[in-house]
Amino acid sequence: MSQSEARYSVRALILTGLVTLVGTVLALESAGRIIHTEDKSAVPIGEFRAIHLSPDEPFRMSRKFSELHAVCEQGYLAIASDVDPAFRGVMVDYKNRGVRCGDIHTFVDDPAANDTSNPTD
Question: Would you say the pTM of this structure is higher than 0.85?
């Protein structure tokens, strides 16, 4: 390495990076851009995905259990922790509407059941 290539030492570059990182966090904190909440009920517990189930296509998912379980809480689906039973949250959709559970009947429209072209009487 020639003299013109070695202008800064590795120690100076690392120190500059750390000072920049700490300075950025302090600037964001003082400007109020980093939000800290004391209300733990407003904090999302996790993100979940629904897998579409169709009768003719298999679906894949992990064989491992997730340390969470679902319960029906006042008519809404709640996710609770297996480790801490007090750690529980209600499932909501993207518009913050609760996902119902319990005695809800969903009927899937079966085209074969509605076929009146070949009556059996």
Answer: no
